[in-house]
Structure to design on (493 residues):
């Protein structure tokens, strides 16, 4: 069962929807800024910047919606409404409609705010919706409720690969005949003092406090860690048969999925990148494609000293000399790292890149790592071949050694 | 100082509106939380928890089932804070 993409939605540090996010990405803008929140200066945080969403949920959701859902679910719902409308609000048998929406961390704001309540006001003041708000499947469940999905709602969790794994789960649901349409993606709302402190404690975050806009610099020789971002990306996946029958507009096709695990370390990538490379290879195999077919890679590339080049070397080893022709984009340079939302927002970027035949830029790369042997798109977008079929890989990797590669081709 | 029945009603209506989106004007003394306002049990517990905080009263869990109408809740709170 061929799988096509018929709807896109997102809310990101670059914009509150797909058009504004894509436009900002093409312009090479940074969504990373110094934190303005009242808590930012309270705790002597080692990192005082992040990629916070550009449009607050309170501007687009009702007051009760913002009170009943954790921000991670709110972002997912905002992106879902855009994606569903973009797909033409399809009429579909609810038992053939699914949801697969992940978060890497879950309802961390809800959890920690409730704990503050216990400590400050006592257990009786904890609100009854705390559990449904903090559970990591909450975004999937709210999306399920939003669209009335009865074929199944899933929330595979694999740290920073979660959003991509959710899209992979949706792909499998349609290919195996479980559903005709699945709303899939990832979301994260973890810009809170605790995750910031925790990621900083493992030396994972950039400390470029005096220049937040240039802090996310994948492949640059002076990269010093990732930048925490937040937001959500959602795609509407549909069997081609169903999409054709209702005359839906098709953005792109999802043709390959490769998922592997490293069995190497709880947080560090396998320095050889074998699992990452194998994920890309399996995804291409499932798609019936070869490395030579790949025109574009939206890299996981988070701007960490260790991670970026492991992936880049893997791409080169898979592509061989064709790596010279592969347009490599690291959009986290602009959005920051959306953790569980990353793979989904970057799938949206990958799909738009194929649709518009243009690879978005990677910003802040003043001096590319000398070991980089793939054609990195720097500062301004680069066009891809004006005609013919184009294939692109979107990579996502997560703490725990989770590797997910998705392969899309143009419609 | 204890609030009047009207003040408690207005405060309670604000909580209900915030949590459910129901217009404050529809939160009237004779309305049933479940039958008229369509408030589910989780939302009701949320409203009770927020009302306890707002009016500085204690509403025991076993008492909540007796708060059928908005008027029942307003009476309970008005009496409890007196």
């Amino acid at each position: 069962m061929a799988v096509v993409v018929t709807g896109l939605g997102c809310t990101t540090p670059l914009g509150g929807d797909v058009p504004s996010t894509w436009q900002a990405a093409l312009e090479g803008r940074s969504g990373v800024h110094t934190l303005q929140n009242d808590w930012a200066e309270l705790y002597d945080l080692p990192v005082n910047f992040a990629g916070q969403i550009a449009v607050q949920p309170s501007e687009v959701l009702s007051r009760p919606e913002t009170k009943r859902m954790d921000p991670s679910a709110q972002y997912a719902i905002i992106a879902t409404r855009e994606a569903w409308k973009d797909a033409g609000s399809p009429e579909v048998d609810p038992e053939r409609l699914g949801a697969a929406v992940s978060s890497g961390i879950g309802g961390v704001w809800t959890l920690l705010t409730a704990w503050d309540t216990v400590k400050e006001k006592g257990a009786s003041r904890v609100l009854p919706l705390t559990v449904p708000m903090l559970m990591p499947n909450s975004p999937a469940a709210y999306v399920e409720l939003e669209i009335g999905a009865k074929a199944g709602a899933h929330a595979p969790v694999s740290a920073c690969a979660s959003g991509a794994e959710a899209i992979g789960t949706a792909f499998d649901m349609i290919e195996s005949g479980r559903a005709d349409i699945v709303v899939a993606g990832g979301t994260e709302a973890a810009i809170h003092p605790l995750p910031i402190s925790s990621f900083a404690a493992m030396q994972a975050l950039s400390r470029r406090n005096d220049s937040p806009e240039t802090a996310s610099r994948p492949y640059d020789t002076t990269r010093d860690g990732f930048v925490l971002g937040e937001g959500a990306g959602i795609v509407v996946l549909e069997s081609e048969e169903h999409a054709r029958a209702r005359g839906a507009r098709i953005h792109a096709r999802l043709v390959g999925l490769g998922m592997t695990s490293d069995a190497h370390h709880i947080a560090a990538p396998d320095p050889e990148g074998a699992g990452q490379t194998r994920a890309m290879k399996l995804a291409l195999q499932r798609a019936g494609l070869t490395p030579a077919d790949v025109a574009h890679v939206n890299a996981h590339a988070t701007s960490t000293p260790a991670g970026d080049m492991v992936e880049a070397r893997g791409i080169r080893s898979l592509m061989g000399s064709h790596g010279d022709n592969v347009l490599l984009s690291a959009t986290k340079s602009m959005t920051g790292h959306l953790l569980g939302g990353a793979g989904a927002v970057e799938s949206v970027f990958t799909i738009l890149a194929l649709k518009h035949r243009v690879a978005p830029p990677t910003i802040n790369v003043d001096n590319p790592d000398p070991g980089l042997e793939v054609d990195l798109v720097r500062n301004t977008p680069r066009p891809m071949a004006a005609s013919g079929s184009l294939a692109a890989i979107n990579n996502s990797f997560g703490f725990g050694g989770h590797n997910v590669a998705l392969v899309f081709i143009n419609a | 100082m204890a609030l009047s029945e009207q003040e408690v009603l207005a405060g309670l209506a604000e909580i209900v509106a915030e949590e459910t989106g129901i217009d404050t004007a529809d939160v009237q003394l004779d309305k049933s939380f479940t039958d008229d306002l369509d408030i589910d049990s989780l939302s009701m517990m949320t409203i009770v928890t927020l009302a306890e905080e707002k009016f500085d009263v204690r509403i025991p869990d076993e008492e909540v089932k007796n708060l059928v109408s908005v008027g029942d809740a307003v009476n309970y709170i008005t009496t409890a804070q007196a």
User: Anything to note?
Assistant: The interface with chain B takes residues 62-64, 67-68, 121, 124-129, 132 of chain A (CB under 8 Å). The mean pLDDT of chain A is 97. The radius of gyration of chain A is 20 Å.
